[in-house]
């Protein structure tokens, strides 16, 4: 009888797990390569208008007679803006929809043929949640649903699920100086941020972006188009504003309450080399827990960015009154070594 110590047993168990996992992945990939998606292609081709683009992996689909057919040699990371998708797999098809009706038809084909569906908006999920984790799934690309319709009379906007922050910021500001309390990257999709909560520079003034979601249009698992708000589909309305990233329905439109853009923005930025990282982090934490400094003015927002080569502090003030802002900047720099780069600017 052979006896192993605890460490040796653990190593053997880990080796067996890794071996099984690798074999499973390889086996699943083999199954996918030989999968026949002709029925799916036939269903989508007969259901969707010719204007809808459907992209199939070139090595899997054999029926290429449809004028809608297009194939691409892609892996799952190539479909993610953040190289997400940590579980390697290949979709059966990527459908570039243009409206809610297209989504309903895709979902109904998926129901009929037993496919998993994953919606993709801005594709900025670091974990690749928008891409799914199952081989041979259907990815619905929402980028084509990107309209921005603003009602200046009540300060609201109806925005397509595929719209990104940059065009939204531009269009809303052109409409009587409005904006949204969204994120900082212009390329991030509005839907993923809003459904996940949505923190940004204006959060201390106006809350999370999900707080300003007034209504949603969405397709459910039966292919039905729903209107979701405070009086209709109330439980979904509660769940989607913070925990709704593709979990319950496929959102096609958001109605947002807009906010007025600040009249003036002042930004302080400082960078230190990594030998000062611990000191900067401690100072940052001390400011956050300093009630006198931090709670005095909701117009001030601070971000710390820790990288492999530097640590950066970005402090933003909204409005004309800079007294509290200047005090916090001075308080922050106290006891810290001089940054190698520092600036205070008022961008246009």
TrEMBL record:
SUPFAM superfamilies: FAD-binding/transporter-associated domain-like (SSF56176). The keyword Flavoprotein applies. GO terms for molecular function: FAD binding; oxidoreductase activity. Pfam families: FAD_binding_4 (PF01565). Residues 1-28 form the signal peptide. Its cofactor is FAD. Gene3D superfamilies: 3.30.465.10, 3.40.462.20. InterPro entries: FAD-bd_PCMH, FAD-bd_PCMH-like_sf, FAD-bd_PCMH_sub2, FAD-linked_Oxidoreductase, Oxid_FAD_bind_N. Residues 87-261 form the FAD-binding PCMH-type domain. It comes from the Eukaryota. Keywords: FAD, Flavoprotein, Oxidoreductase, Signal. Belongs to the oxygen-dependent FAD-linked oxidoreductase family. This is FAD-binding PCMH-type domain-containing protein.
């Amino acid at each position: 009888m052979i006896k192993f110590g605890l460490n040796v047993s653990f190593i053997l168990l880990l080796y067996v797990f890794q071996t099984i996992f690798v074999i499973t992945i390889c086996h699943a990939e083999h199954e996918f390569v030989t999968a026949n998606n002709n029925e799916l292609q036939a269903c989508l081709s007969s259901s969707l208008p010719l204007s809808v683009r459907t992209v199939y992996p070139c090595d899997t689909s054999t029926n290429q007679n449809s004028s809608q057919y297009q194939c691409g040699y892609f892996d799952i990371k190539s479909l993610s803006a953040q190289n997400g998708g940590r579980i390697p797999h290949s979709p059966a098809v990527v459908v570039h929809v243009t409206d809610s009706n297209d989504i309903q038809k895709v979902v109904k084909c998926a129901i009929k043929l037993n496919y998993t569906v994953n919606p993709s908006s801005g594709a900025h999920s670091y974990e690749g949640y928008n891409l799914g984790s199952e081989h041979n799934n259907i990815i619905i690309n929402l980028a084509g649903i990107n309209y921005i319709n603003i009602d200046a009379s009540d300060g609201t906007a109806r925005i397509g699920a595929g719209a990104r922050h940059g065009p939204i910021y531009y269009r809303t500001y052109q409409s009587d100086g409005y904006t949204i309390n969204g994120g900082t990257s212009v390329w991030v999709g509005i839907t993923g941020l809003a459904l996940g909560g949505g923190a940004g520079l204006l959060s201390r003034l106006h809350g999370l972006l999900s707080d300003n979601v007034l209504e949603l249009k969405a397709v459910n698992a039966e292919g039905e188009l729903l209107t979701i708000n405070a009086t209709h589909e109330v439980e979904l309305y509660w769940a989607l504003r913070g925990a709704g990233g593709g979990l319950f329905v496929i959102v096609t439109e958001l109605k947002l309450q807009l906010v007025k853009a600040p009249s003036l923005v002042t930004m302080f930025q400082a960078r230190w080399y990594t030998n000062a990282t611990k000191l900067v982090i401690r100072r940052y934490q001390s400011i956050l827990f300093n009630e006198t400094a931090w709670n005095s003015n909701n117009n001030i927002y601070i971000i710390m960015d820790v990288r492999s080569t530097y640590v950066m502090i970005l402090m933003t003030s909204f409005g004309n009154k800079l007294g509290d802002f200047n005090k916090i900047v001075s308080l922050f720099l106290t006891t810290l070594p001089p940054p190698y780069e520092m600036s205070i600017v008022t961008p246009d």
